[in-house]
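**User:** Hello, beginner here. Are you able to go through the protein record under this note? It all follows right here:
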Amino acid sequence: MNISLLSAQFAVRSLSAADIPEILRLCEGNPEYYRYCPPPVSAETIRSDLAAMPTGKADAEKYDLGFCQNGRLAAVMDLLCRYPDDETVLIGFFMVDRSLQGAGVGSRVISDCLQYLKSIGFARARLGYMKGNPQPKAFWEKLRFAPTGAEHARGHGTVVVMERAL
C-alpha cells in the first residue's frame, strides 16, 4: 500500500515511537474519548497501541498513520489491512485534533482513505466504537457505516462493530 495516496488533502506519514509526544498532544485534546474508552492516554498507552497486533497478523499489514496539515498532526489512524478477512480493512483507531473538529477534517480523511482502499481492492471497512458514546456513533453513521449487529463486551464497556461496503 502506498500510504501517500490515502489522502489528496493531507500529507500522510507513518508514525513511530519518535512521534509519541505529538500523538499524545493530539489525544490529550480529546478527553471525552477516554471517558468511554479508558485508561487515560499516556506515552505508555500510545507506545502499547503502536505495538498492538491481533494474533496471527504480520506487522506489514498494520499502519499507524499521521495525517498532517502545515507540518502538524491533524489526525491519527491505526489501520489494519486484511482483517478480519482478506477483503476487509479495520480502522482500529481514529482521532482528529480537537482544534480541527467540526470543520470536516475527519470526514475528508476517512472519505479519501476509503476511496483509495477501494481502488486497491478492499471490499469493506470495519471499525468499532464504545456503546453509549454519541459522538463517534454520529460521525461514523454520517459516513455510511452501519452496525453489523455484533457487539463485544470489554472490561470498560461494550464495543459496537460497524461496517461499510466500499
